[in-house]
Design goal:
By secondary structure, this protein is an alpha/beta fold.
Length: about 425
């Protein structure tokens, strides 16, 4: 293991990137888009140092695992994977070594790369890889203290990154050919709260850049959205922004939201959704729910179902509550797995029932879209202005505008036929 600094066993003194220089490197990344942003930055640093990325562990001199530990099943998967790869020189980064170093050391003896070291090293490189989608981190940490969340302990309090740094990276991605720019943070709507700025300020600034691009704003907490709602609605007037918002509500019960310390009520969440829909009827709303939170009654669960029925999100992500170390409900009685699995299945199925009537009016229509990703040879993903995915089975360049006839509804996207 590397020597620590400032008493933090996960922060390194030695130059880990010099150790990785000119090596064949295999990388696996797990978790959220922020983690994938860390990996993209790390790859640029490695490339700058003459390292080569390879496609399998067998080809590699060293292996890097960018970890996630947001829920128990993911943690167990991480530990199994680390144990399986421990015979090769192994490097570990991401959230897990920040909060569960001893668990990692119980299965392997890796070198830890603190995520802050990746950021520090990247700031001296600042290159980006070509591609249709560019991930731009705008802040780390958050202002919340949700009782179930281990990520807050891993990533710490809110640190908003400077506007000029963000602006420079967005422009670099646009110049390299990216069309979709994904702004990511643990809570995007909290950006600037620690520096006297606000997310709408940032969006207005980024929308003034030159080039062919559109921005997707990442996950926002309804609590921090509420204080900037008017200005945020105004910022979304720009055609540079996808009409898409990701607002995790987590529960349809005020009692459970209070126990989670989310800082808002169900009505306040619905008010935000309604405000966006009044201003932009075509906007896509995505949300998240946690099922099986300690103390969640059948009545609480039914309120989550009812909230989906009222708000009809375009996408619902469902997570089964998982006890995490260092979090508030860790010592509380947990539900049996079968209860959480049943509730997850019911909530998922009910959410999917809402997608068909939401998508039906679009089926058979021709929509304007822009190609953002090459999925495989002969197939691309395009996005409409409201971020609706359209898979077109043609080889088309990133950034090309197209018109597609929506032929098949796949719930989470459409199969489209190129018209023009």
């Amino acid at each position: 293991m590397e020597e620590s600094r400032s008493g933090d066993p996960c922060r390194d003194m030695t130059d880990v990137f010099a150790v990785l220089a000119k090596k064949r490197v295999y990388i696996e990344t797990y978790g959220c888009s922020y983690n994938f942003g860390d990996t993209a930055n790390l790859l640029e640093v490695l490339n700058h140092n003459g390292s080569i990325r390879v496609a399998s562990p067998a080809e590699a001199d060293v292996i890097i695992i960018n970890t996630c530990t947001v829920v128990g099943p993911t943690e167990r998967r991480m530990l199994r994977r680390l144990a399986a790869l421990r015979e090769k020189p192994l490097f570990v980064t991401g959230c897990m070594p920040l909060v569960q170093r001893e668990a990692i050391l119980s299965v392997c003896s890796p070198t830890i790369i603190h995520p802050d070291r990746i950021r520090d090293a990247y700031l001296s490189v600042r290159t980006v890889a070509p591609g249709g989608v560019g991930i731009v981190q705008i802040a780390q940490g958050c202002l919340g203290r949700c009782t179930y969340c281990i990520t807050r302990r891993a990533r710490g309090p809110l640190i908003s990154f400077p506007t000029e740094e963000i602006r420079e990276k967005v422009q670099a991605f646009v110049n390299s050919g990216a069309y979709e720019i994904q702004l990511t943070a643990q809570d995007a709507s909290a950006w600037g709260r620690d520096t006297g700025q606000s997310l709408p300020d940032l969006l207005v600034d980024l929308c003034s850049l030159q080039g062919n691009y559109r921005i997707r704003v990442g996950m926002m907490n309804p609590k921090t959205v509420s204080s900037i709602l008017g200005d945020l609605l105004g910022a979304f007037e720009s055609e540079r922004l996808f009409r898409f918002v990701h607002l995790p509500v987590q529960s349809g019960s005020d009692r459970i939201l209070e126990q989670m310390r989310r800082g808002y009520t169900v009505q306040e969440f619905e008010d935000v959704v309604s405000a966006f829909r009044r201003r932009y009827p075509d906007i896509s709303i995505a949300t998240d729910f946690i099922v099986g939170f300690p103390g969640e009654t059948e009545k609480d669960f039914s309120r989550s179902l009812a909230l989906i029925g009222r708000t009809k999100p375009a996408k619902v992500n469902v997570t089964r509550y998982s006890k995490r170390p260092f979090t508030g409900p860790f010592a509380e009685k947990d539900f049996p797995d079968f209860v959480k699995k049943d509730r997850s299945r019911i909530l998922n199925a009910y959410a999917e029932e809402q997608y068909t009537p939401l998508n039906r009016p679009s089926l058979g229509t021709t929509v304007a879209c822009v190609v953002t990703e090459k999925l495989r040879p002969g197939s691309v993903m395009a996005r409409t202005a409201s971020y609706q995915g359209v898979v077109i089975q043609r080889d088309l360049p990133i950034g090309v505008a197209a018109e597609a006839l929506l032929k098949k509804d796949r719930k989470y996207f459409f199969m489209g036929e190129l018209v023009a």
